[in-house]
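Action item from last meeting closed. Structure (408 res):
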């Protein structure tokens, strides 16, 4: 019903980079972007009539290898390799870059499979799209042995990609995390990390101008619903009031090193403006996404979070995920990459992080509350409803309780 045209940014990204990576939190449209690239490279502008890229795109079509790491079994490196080989082999056969009679038994690892694919290919003849490259790592953040083994397997895969990069017309990788010295960037240094590049700050998520322009009829319908009047009676002042609330609840995300571009959370905006929705300012992203596996595993490994983790300052050269993220900086980076913190401002040396909007303040309070209750036995939780017993629990201070229940 509505298409927000980002294809001019996509065209710029492809023109400027042969190999690139971008990280964003969940439900910001990474997989949709991968689908867009898949369609563009495999079918040309067939699905892009009337969009900005239609007149700019002059490239031919290619076999596209689209590989989603979040679909893979990752309880052990053995199960990861087996599932990855079977999955990637099927993708390679479908794309026509390997014969239909090839069997998984021939390949012990995805590295050997990638080497075989590249051996059969000509230069500049394929496109590789990898979605959620870090999913197996995030799932094993609390299991260092499996984490390190799978990290090495992924690293070997990217070493093969790097070695055979001339075979690919374009390589694009997405993920939630930007791991330091792990898998992607240590092995594939030729992959350009665009995650903090201001040119692509608005690539994922909606700007306010895009909401105003692309969703104008739906914004007017939502205003009509909220004020209980007909759409013909809606005034610009009333639309501005609704935009003020939208901005407070869902805006404030910043993904560029200059802190220059803000975007709205697209999942929440779409749910709020949905024609069949109730047009309520609910916490759609947190309600539908919950606490991610990455954040759950991190909180378990780090012993939870506290209110002291708010408003951190992070040196620019440390704004990546360390393998042992137990420091205050490590915590802040994980919370930013999970979508709880965002860049509020920047200077030449540091990023200053904070909660982007009301929805995330609610989500953050929910996490603090849940984490605090986990530190108390059931008797203490029940007693909170009846008396001041919980305030005397040695694991929870009265300051913590006051903070939790007075947070807006």
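Sequence:
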């Amino acid at each position: 019903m509505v298409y927000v045209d980002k294809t001019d940014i996509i065209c710029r990204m492809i023109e400027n980079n042969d190999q690139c990576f971008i990280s964003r939190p969940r439900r910001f449209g990474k997989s949709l972007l991968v689908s867009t690239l898949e369609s563009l490279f495999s079918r040309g502008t067939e699905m892009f009539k009337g969009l900005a890229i239609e007149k700019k795109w002059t490239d031919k079509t290619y076999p596209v290898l689209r590989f989603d790491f979040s679909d893979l079994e990752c309880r052990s490196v053995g199960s990861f390799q087996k599932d990855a080989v079977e999955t990637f082999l099927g993708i390679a056969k479908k794309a026509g870059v390997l014969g239909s009679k090839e069997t998984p038994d021939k390949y012990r690892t995805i590295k050997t499979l990638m080497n075989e694919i590249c051996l059969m290919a000509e230069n500049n003849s394929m496109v590789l799209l990898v979605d959620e490259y870090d999913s197996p790592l995030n799932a094993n953040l609390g299991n260092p042995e499996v984490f390190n083994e799978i990290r090495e397997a992924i690293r070997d895969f990217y070493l093969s990609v790097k070695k055979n990069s001339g075979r690919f017309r374009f390589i694009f990788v997405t993920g939630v995390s930007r791991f330091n010295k792990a898998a992607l960037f240590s092995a594939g240094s030729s992959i350009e990390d665009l995650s903090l590049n201001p040119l692509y700050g608005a690539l994922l998520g909606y700007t306010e101008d895009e909401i105003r322009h692309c969703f104008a009829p739906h914004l007017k319908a939502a205003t009509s619903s909220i004020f209980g009047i007909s759409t013909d009676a809606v005034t610009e002042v009333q639309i501005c009031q609704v935009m003020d609330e939208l901005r407070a609840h869902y805006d404030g995300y910043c993904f560029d090193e200059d802190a220059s571009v803000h975007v709205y959370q697209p999942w929440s905006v779409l749910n709020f403006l949905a024609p069949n929705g109730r047009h309520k300012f609910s916490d759609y992203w947190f309600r539908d996404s919950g606490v991610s596996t990455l954040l759950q595993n991190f909180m378990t490994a780090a012993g939870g979070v506290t209110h002291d983790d708010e408003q951190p300052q992070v040196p620019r050269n440390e704004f990546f995920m360390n393998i042992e993220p137990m420091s205050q900086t490590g915590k802040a980076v994980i919370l930013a990459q999970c979508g709880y913190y965002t860049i509020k401002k920047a200077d030449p040396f540091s990023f200053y992080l904070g909660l982007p909007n009301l929805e995330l303040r609610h989500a953050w309070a929910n996490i603090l509350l849940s984490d605090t209750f986990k530190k108390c036995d059931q008797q203490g939780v029940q007693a909170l409803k009846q008396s001041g017993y919980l305030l005397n629990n040695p694991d929870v201070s009265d300051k913590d309780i006051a903070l939790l229940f007075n947070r807006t």
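Note appended to the action item: Residues 144-163 form the longest helix (20 residues).
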